Amino acid sequence: MSTTSKVVLGVSVLFTLSTVVGVHLKQTWDRERLHEGVVRDIERLERKRDNLLLEAQRNLTQELEAQRNLTQELEAQRNLTQELEAQRNLTQELEAQRNLTQELEAQRNLTQELEAQRNLTQELEAQRNLTQELEAQRNLTQELEAQRNLTQELEAQRNLTQELEAQRNLTQELEAQRNLTQELEAQRNLTQELEAERHKRDTGLKGSNQPQD
User: Fold this and answer.
1) CA–CA dist 15, 9 (Å, integer)
2) For the purposes of burial, counting CB atoms within 10 Å of the CB of 86, is it exposed (0-12), middle (13-18) or buried (19 or more)?
3) Residue among 158, 176, 61 at smallest CA distance from 150
4) Residues 2, 16: Cα–Cα separation, whole Å
5) Given CA atoms 55, 61, 67, 70 in this order, what sign does their dihedral have?
């Protein structure tokens, strides 16, 4: 092998070795850098997690403080609500008592009105009874007056009947007298006729007796 080939081969081997070593060193350095980056990332993540935990704890503390304040406020509100409820119940009881008092007053007034109406009804009943008695007395008076008038009418009719009876008797007497008068007149006429006949007969007899003489 020539010297040039040896040099070229040595240079090639040296270049190859240096390349391999460089690549290995670069890989090692990159791996260390990557490891350092991972470590830094882990540290950053831990710090971030710690910060997040601290932030969460602070927020939780604030929330707990707010909850405690809210609990206290709710407790105060509950106590106030209970007091208001008690006051409202007391107000309702007072209102109920006032309404009951008003109802009792209204019932008492109504009872008084009913008593007054009952008394008025009794007075009206008494007046109605009195009115009915007066009406009955007036009706009785009217009936008595009607009976008296009827009695007077009956008395007048009886008197009229008696007068009519007397007139009828008088009429019968007059009729009898007229009939008697007529009979007497007839008898007188008959007597006159008989007298005339007798006179005629006597005249005729006288006339018949004179020639004989």
Assistant:
1) 10
2) exposed
3) 158
4) 21
5) negative
Cα 49–Cα 55–Cα 61 angle in degrees, nearest 5: 135
Question: How many Cα neighbours within 13 Å face the side chain of 200?
Answer: 5
> Does the pTM exceed 0.90?
no
DSSP assignment of 106-171 equals HHHHHHHHHHHHHHHHHHHHHHHHHHHHHHHHHHHHHHHHHHHHHHHHHHHHHHHHHHHHHHHHHH
Q: Where are the domains of the chain?
A: 83-163
pLDDT digits 0-9 by tens, 25-78: 888 888 888 777 777 888 888 888 888 888 888 888 888 898 889 889 889 988
Separation CA 181–CA 189 (nearest Å): 12
